[in-house]
Amino acid sequence: MTPERSCPNCGAALPKLLTHARMVDCEFCSSSIVLDDEVVAKAGEAGVMLDAPELIGLGRTVQLGDVGVFTATGHVRYDYGRGHWDEYHGALIGGDLLWVSVD
Question: Which of 19, 37, 85, 86 could in theory staple to 103 by disulfide, Cβ–Cβ 3.0 to 4.6 A?
Answer without folding.
Answer: 85
